[in-house]
């Protein structure tokens, strides 16, 4: 009697990946008009941009934000009482503006953090800031899981955090390292050296190098993070920013002066005018171009696709895969019982 030979197990059929073929067009279709369509839609609806400023008092945070957007958008410019005392704990104060340029509306929110780094004991003073950032993610998540959610969810998530480093010329404070170590995991941090005009060019160059080295040694990743570079072009552009520009050594001013027949933003000193937008004087123009003209959309995308998604996945995982309960979902749940 012959032995039964088991039939060889067939390998599962793996579906073929669609092959992309470069097809030459016989005539004009109009695919390129999508850019114009997107532009028109953005001009109609506008967009949100939320920027947070963190650093001890006296580093010119409000002035720099005003200079960045060429308008009085900071908390101090919006009815702030100059006799207001430094709070005993870190406070979070947000103020919104609508800025329009070339027909495009930007709904700008500036989030200030008075009291940060100003106490005798600054232990864990980054916690209220992290709590605020996560609260904005939670607010967005709850809107997102609503059955009848809004067509356009209000976006209060922090897209960018400018962290102001004191121009000591020595090294970062433990508080600087502690803050950036914790917050770089939840928000896009851009470190800036404040009041750079208090250092010589040599001191500024050495301090920038020292700060970069300290951040690297402590494993702190600032924006733009290496792991999020999408292609070689991105990597080349961002490597230059990471290795040469960061942290931006800046000077802010919302006052104009006459220099060589031109009106320029600057700071008047006994030895002359420091021109804010002159790259020979400071790196403000590099910061402005980086935040607004080249990376603004990417800041928003990294916030949504990386930081918010990380928060969302953790919340859903902690909740057993279920979305967090909102007032609406609770009411629907009760009506179904």
Automatic annotation (TrEMBL):
Subcellular location: Cytoplasm
Gene3D superfamilies (alphabetical): P-loop containing nucleotide triphosphate hydrolases
One GO molecular-function entry: GTP binding
Keywords: Cytoplasm, GTP-binding, Nucleotide-binding
Entry keyword annotation includes Lipoprotein: no
Stored PROSITE patterns: G_SEPTIN
Highest taxon in the source lineage: Eukaryota
A GO CC annotation given for this chain: cytoplasm
Domain Septin-type G, residue spans: 45-318
UniProt keyword annotation of Nucleotide-binding present: yes
Chain spans, region Disordered: 315-337
Main location per the UniProt record: cytoplasm
Family: Belongs to the TRAFAC class TrmE-Era-EngA-EngB-Septin-like GTPase superfamily. Septin GTPase family.
Protein name: Neuronal-specific septin-3
